[in-house]
Amino acid sequence: MLLRRRLEALRCSRSADGASSPSKRCSSLPRKFSARREGAPQLQTRRAEASNTSAAASDSSPPTSTSAVAPPPPPPPPQHLPATYRRLVARVPSPSFRSGARVEELPLLPPDSLLGEGQVLVRVAVAGVNGGCETFRVRAEPGTPFAKEGSSPASPSSSSASPSSSSASLSSSSSSPSSSPDPLVVPLGAEGAGTVVAVGPGVRPSQLAVGDRVTMNGGAAFAEFVVAGARGCFRVPESSASSPPSSSSSSSSPSLSPAAAVALSLSGLTAAVALHATAKVRRGETVLVTAAAGGTGHLAVQLAALAGCRVVAVAGGERKARRLRRELSRLDPANEAGHAVVDYKSEEASRDLSGAISGALASSSGGQGGRSEGGGGGRGGGGKGEGFAVGGGIDVCYEGVGGAVRNAVLHNLNAGARVLCVGYMGSYPHTENYRSRREGGGGGSGEEEGAGAAAAEAAPAPATETVFVSGPFDAEPRGRAALPLEPDLFWNRRVVSSLPGDRTIFGDVWSGAAGDPRVLARLRRDLFAAALRGEIVPWIDGEGEGEGEGGNEDDRRSDAPSFSGLEAASDAVERLLSGSSMGKVVLRVSEGGAW
Ligand SMILES: NC(=O)c1ccc[n+]([C@@H]2O[C@H](COP(=O)([O-])OP(=O)(O)OC[C@H]3O[C@@H](n4cnc5c(N)ncnc54)[C@H](OP(=O)(O)O)[C@@H]3O)[C@@H](O)[C@H]2O)c1
């Protein structure tokens, strides 16, 4: 049960309740959202009782062997804290993040009166931007805290969000009037990285100490300071000294930047859990990743390649495709695995995305156009190198777009395939603009595109949609299947295993870690260790384009803005929702976004 809560806290979108305090109000949240209330790092309205954090198991795990061998650092000097701090919240449902998010300045009480048992105070350096998740919360979409309070999803006319004087702050309950209930305040910011500046009672030095660099997942990272449960923070490993670099490593870095740490903390861990714990990818399998140049997609691509899989990366635009090719060739210079990149905005793919994916699968399997051996449930990829069996289709799909893109994938599945529905970005209500631009520009795939868009907009909504599931080359079982609509599939964590050919669709990509807390701990440790060794390279939007061989002038001239200060959060969210970002979009909260 505890682990389930911890997983819920990690699920970006699903932990979108944004609870601002462990109050009675929150206790009526549905079970799937309750984790945020119970354990995510949160801004507190009053001194908390015993820590009830729900962070992942690894949060309380012992230090890695890397940190164990290092001599203990000298105790840091006392921290000088400001009298006030600023944070970003929503107070009324609003149609967009920009119209609902408000910066508030509040008193910051001294830590000894602020921190409860098991809590720490973190100065946030960098916050990760989850445009989809954050906007769900501001809009009061079903399941989010505003919706639980009885507010409907915001329409354009309900944009009267205005900041009211705050009673919720790091200023303790003594400053809050107790005669009337607090207005609901939804803190924003699903993930952050920062430095511990104070520890509360009951926090063991082996757990966390002042000066530790941590990541935290929760709902309040768009703030200069956050009160978090110590068990909800993950100490970022400092060095890869004890981990020898692997042959695929191009470089190893002595420590991670806060932006890199934040990218790994939720986007990376989601990919690691989905691929390794839920889908249980095997060497030689073919893994297709959609939104492959995005915040979580680029990490899924790297993890799959490192696991010895053939990767087919699907992304929109030549700029993203070029960066993906470069990344894959860093990991596999001779392309032994037969990796391929599909630009769905290219002329061919915009006519027929399913066909373009089939083509990529065929060409990267040496053009054989089908499985000539290996059968038996779709095992074995189509790569050219040793260890890659001949095969045609997709074994595992990490899919965050939905709609037409998802349907094109469903036409290319090997028997036994696992489809991981990490989200459905293309149909989120707040990405309509990008969707219509894409469709208007001929970016869809005909019939499939229409089906995806129509599914999201049909009224009244049918309970299911019919999809066609097949393999790419007529070799595998095929047929129609009824699927829950995307929101139902995702928010209600459906697992659909009734598809022809023993194929499965997971609406909950975290489910594979639900049974064993050690799984999450191990995956997180492995992920950060791989990044420290330089095997996994988190991309930060606006940084690093054109690095390495193959970068051209266009790549080097990144026009991506960088975002600093809480006032820039709306720009950062819109950057992600625009579809033009590459890698993880981050907001630098502290000066320069330094630790
Ligand atoms: N379940 C979880 O725990 C979890 C955690 C993190 C993220 N997610 C989900 O993973 C997916 C990716 O999230 P992310 O935060 O990493 O974002 P992202 O991939 O960095 O950015 C979104 C990308 O989605 C693609 N896209 C397709 N249709 C779009 C549309 N209509 N509007 C905007 N973008 C569209 C665009 O790339 P292309 O044009 O190249 O396709 C865009 O760059 C989302 O569905 C998100 O909700 C889930």
Can you give keywords for this protein?
595 residues, alpha/beta, 7-stranded mixed β-sheet, binds NADP nicotinamide-adenine-dinucleotide phosphate
Characterization of this structure:
The chain is an alpha/beta fold and about 600 residues long. It is built from 20 helices and 19 strands. Strands 3, 5, 6, 7, 8, 18 and 19 form a 7-stranded mixed sheet that branches. β16 and β17 form a beta hairpin. It is globular and about 70 Å long. The structure holds NADP nicotinamide-adenine-dinucleotide phosphate (NAP). The site of NADP nicotinamide-adenine-dinucleotide phosphate (NAP) has 32 residues, from α9, α15 and α20.
Task: Reconstruct the topology from this structure.
Blueprint: H1 2-10, H2 24-27, H3 31-39, H4 65-69, E1 84-90, H5 97-100, E2 101-107, H6 111-114, E3 119-128, H7 131-139, H8 145-148, E4 186-187, E5 191-199, E6 213-217, E7 225-229, E8 233-235, H9 258-278, E9 286-289, H10 297-306, E10 310-315, H11 318-331, E11 340-343, H12 347-351, H13 353-364, E12 394-399, H14 403-410, E13 413-421, H15 432-440, H16 447-457, E14 464-469, E15 479-484, H17 486-491, E16 495-499, E17 503-506, H18 517-532, H19 553-556, E18 563-564, H20 569-577, E19 586-588
Parallel strand pairs: 9-10, 9-12, 10-11, 12-13, 13-17, 18-19
Antiparallel strand pairs: 1-2, 1-4, 3-5, 3-7, 3-19, 5-6, 6-8, 14-15, 16-17
Helix pairs in contact: 1-3, 7-20, 9-10, 9-18, 10-11, 13-14, 14-16
The protein binds NADP nicotinamide-adenine-dinucleotide phosphate.
